[in-house]
Structures are given as structure tokens and as C-alpha cells.
Automatic annotation (TrEMBL):
Transmembrane segments: none annotated. PANTHER family: SAF DOMAIN PROTEIN, STRU PROTEIN. The lineage of its organism: Bacteria, Bacillati, Bacillota, Bacilli, Bacillales. One of its GO terms (molecular function) is NADP binding. Residues 345-411 form the SAF domain. This is Predicted homoserine dehydrogenase, contains C-terminal SAF domain. SMART domains: SAF. InterPro entries: Asp/hSer_DH_NAD-bd, DRL_cat, NAD(P)-bd_dom_sf, SAF.
Length: 429
């Protein structure tokens, strides 16, 4: 089988290319546009964003001539532009998901409800959908995957995102017959459950990132969501609510990820977790019951066993997304998807004391953070999935800091697409 680079080169030699539609021209989207402009057999032919200048600047920085950028919200104008090998900048995301010329849609918005809408519309229009929106995926991904399968298109997470990078290690080890004991990622910063845009502002400014986004990493929410996606894809579960969050180096991981009665720190096997000290990498802890395999692993300097670590010290976020685009289009395969349905649930926890009538904000905000539970634990508590939280969700009662917020604790001022899809998913599964 040809590798992706050779397949893309062959596509270009034949005078064709994968036509990509992108929603979201923020940091991830901009990087992806530039990366794809350097590739063979693929192009971002249309991008949607609320600010058109974000799109035109992204294309110009990628080396696209200004004369070849068509700004329009008109479907016929957009179609002709793509047919003429120009690129389109639009404020209408539905134009991206519906335009006949587009083969694969990428959601890079980071907003759960918008991501759910984009994925749903893409599937209804028989387009492959690549999600750079893990929050939407862990909330309604099982339903979206089922609908995509029924429609004959691919629903997938992205290579380069940590769940996708972990899945590649898992597939590698599982294909060879190793037992996969644990899957995990490094965390870049100490856990601070009280982090918010104000406390993160100074560091965010120094890093050139959004305070809200940085706060979502600091308060652990992004880590919970990412490992939730891995749980849904593999059937692995958190060893305890919120995971352990061990501290250690790469060489220490095989010993840490053993059961307590064997000298390690786990209650069981087949788990997801995170570690402070190995960021920005991802890892898989593997084992074998075969004497010859263990002897070979020792010879290969993989350690003395019984556990070994496969470690990838990088993930290139949206710069790797084109690999998932190509895999979906050329091979009809996902990089990562919720094959096991809803195994984990990232539930909503009060970041501070909250009052009745208060509007919740969203991920990385001032009111809530996420905590990964087994889906059965979340169901028993009637816990509110974090991906359903936005400014339209209002508390019906006061909630103490650190308490899990339930469906019974909230009401909506306006029903969103992701709530409707989650309701369907809960009935279907």
C-alpha cells in the first residue's frame, strides 16, 4: 500500500487534489492552511470565520496571492471560484459544509456547539469531517460516528492532537499483540482547579495565547477531555475519578503504571491517565506474557519489564491534521473515533461557589471545570456533561465549589444543537 505522501503525489500528478473546507481561522486553522499549501494533492479551498480578515491574512501568510482569494457568501460564486482553482473566504460556515466541490470539512472552532453543528451538517451533506474539537467529540461523538457510518463518510479526530497521537501508539502496539496496560499524556503545567482567564492573563500574553484557552489547560479540563476521547476510542477507563495525575519521568512510567500489589500505583489495568513531567509527549505502557518477546525487548534496550513504555515526545497539533484529511479521503479510515461509544464522561464541576440564577460560562472560564469519570459513574450522578455548558445554561440552585453540577441543577434559556444531539444520543445508546 502506498504511503500518504506517495498517494498525494500521485493525486497531484493526475491533476487532482483533495478540496478541504475549514471552519475557524484561529491559531490552529492558520497553521493548517500554511502547512497544506506546502503539500501535494491537497488544498484548503474554502475557509469560514466570523472575521474575514482572519481568513485573508491566513491565506496571504501561506503564500496565496491576494488576487486568488475570493470573498463571498454566495454559493454560486464560491463554486465557480473553487472550480477556477481560487480560494474562498466566507463568514457562512454552512457554505463550507454544503458546497458540492468540497471533499473534507475540518472543524477548528474549539466551540462544542458550533463543532457539533458543523459535523452534523457535513455528514448530512455526505462529506468527511475531521474534528479539531475534542469537546464536541466527547459529548456527541458516538452519535456523529454512527450517522457518518450510515452515510458512508468518515468521522474522525485529528492526527497531531494528543488523542490522535496516543491512538497511533495504541494501534501500533495492539496490532503487534502486546497487552496495552495504560495510555496517557504529559501535562504542561501544574493542576490549578481555580485557574481562570484573569489568573492566566499574564502568562497568556507572554505566550501569545488566549487567556481562556490557557486556563482550560491549567484547570485540567483539556486533559480530562483529551483522555475522555481516548477512553471512548479504546474502551480504557480512568483508574479513579479525575485520574491520578502522577509525577514522573519517561523512564519511571513502566514502574508507576503497575498495580499496587506489584509495586506500582494502579488499581487496575486498561486505564487512561496523565503525568506531570513528560510533556508535551504521549505514551503507551505495554506488556507481553511471552518469554521470547520479553527477552527481545530487553535486548532492544526497552527495559527489564514486565512493563515497557512507548513514548512519542511531540505532537504537532493542527500541522498534522492534513494526515487525517488524507486518511479519511484516500483510505476511508479515521485517525481516532469513539469506537467503544461513551466510556468516559467529562462532567461539570463548580470552580467556585455559584448562586441560583447564575449563568455558566464555558470551558476555561470563571465558573466551571471538567472532571473525567466513567460514564456509568456520571450517569449514576445525573452529571451534566461539560460539552453542554454555555451562556444559555442557568443554575436553578446554588452550588458549592467542587460539587458536580447535575442536569437537575440547570435549565436552558435557549436549546442548542449539541443538547438536541446529546438527547438523541442518550436515547439511541
Amino acid at each position: 500500500m502506498l504511503n500518504i505522501n506517495r498517494k498525494l503525489a500521485k493525486l497531484e500528478q493526475e491533476g487532482a487534489y483533495i478540496k478541504v473546507g475549514l471552519v475557524g481561522a484561529g491559531q490552529m486553522g492558520r497553521g493548517m492552511i500554511s502547512q497544506i499549501e506546502s503539500m501535494k494533492g491537497m488544498r484548503v479551498v474554502m475557509t469560514a470565520d466570523l472575521v474575514v480578515d482572519n481568513i485573508t491574512n491566513a491565506y496571504k501568510h501561506a503564500g496565496v496571492n491576494a488576487a486568488n482569494i475570493v470573498e463571498t457568501d454566495d454559493a454560486q460564486v464560491a463554486s465557480k471560484a473553487v472550480q477556477d482553482h481560487n480560494v474562498v473566504a466566507t463568514t457562512d460556515s454552512k457554505l463550507v459544509t454544503s458546497l458540492p466541490e468540497i471533499d473534507v470539512v475540518v472543524d477548528a472552532t474549539g466551540v462544542p456547539n458550533i463543532g457539533a453543528e458543523i459535523a452534523w451538517d457535513s455528514i448530512l451533506n455526505n462529506k468527511h469531517i475531521v474534528m479539531l474539537n475534542v469537546e464536541a467529540d466527547v459529548t456527541v461523538g458516538p452519535l456523529l460516528k454512527k450517522m457518518a457510518d450510515a452515510s458512508g463518510v468518515v468521522y474522525t479526530g485529528s492526527a497531531g492532537d494528543e488523542p490522535g497521537a496516543i491512538m497511533e501508539l495504541y494501534d501500533f502496539a495492539d496490532a503487534m499483540g502486546f497487552e496495552v496496560v495504560a495510555l496517557g499524556k504529559g501535562k504542561n503545567n501544574p493542576l490549578n482547579l481555580e485557574a481562570n482567564p484573569d489568573t492566566a492573563a499574564e502568562e497568556a500574553k507572554a505566550k501569545g495565547s488566549a487567556p481562556k484557552m490557557l486556563a482550560s489547560f491549567q484547570d485540567g479540563t483539556k486533559t480530562m477531555v483529551e483522555m475522555n476521547a481516548v477512553a471512548n476510542a479504546t474502551g480504557f477507563l480512568p483508574d479513579q475519578p479525575g485520574m491520578h495525575g502522577f509525577k514522573g519521568s519517561v523512564s519511571e512510567l513502566p514502574g508507576i503504571f503497575m498495580e499496587k500489589d506489584k509495586g506500582g500505583q494502579l488499581n487496575g489495568r486498561g486505564i487512561v491517565d496523565y503525568v506531570n513531567g513528560v510533556a508535551p509527549g504521549v505514551f503507551a505502557i505495554i506488556a507481553s506474557d511471552k518469554e521470547e518477546v520479553n527477552a527481545e525487548m530487553k535486548y532492544l534496550k526497552m527495559g527489564d519489564g514486565p512493563n515497557y513504555v512507548l513514548y512519542r515526545p511531540y505532537h504537532l497539533t493542527s500541522l498534522e491534521t492534513p494526515l487525517s484529511i488524507a486518511k479519511a479521503y484516500l483510505d476511508r479510515e479515521a485517525t481516532i473515533a469513539p469506537y467503544y461509544g461513551l466510556q468516559g464522561e467529562t462532567v461539570t464541576v463548580a470552580k467556585k461557589d455559584l448562586e441560583a440564577g447564575e449563568h455558566l460560562d464555558s470551558i476555561g472560564g470563571f465558573t466551571v471545570y471538567g472532571k473525567l469519570l466513567k460514564s456509568s459513574e456520571a450517569k449514576d450522578q445525573n452529571a451534566l456533561p461539560l460539552g453542554l455548558v454555555d451562556r444559555n445554561v442557568v443554575l436553578k440552585k446554588s452550588i458549592k465549589k467542587g460539587e458536580v453540577i447535575t442536569y437537575d441543577d440547570v435549565e436552558q434559556t435557549k436549546e442548542s444543537t449539541i443538547w438536541k444531539l446529546r438527547s438523541i444520543q442518550d436515547r439511541e445508546f
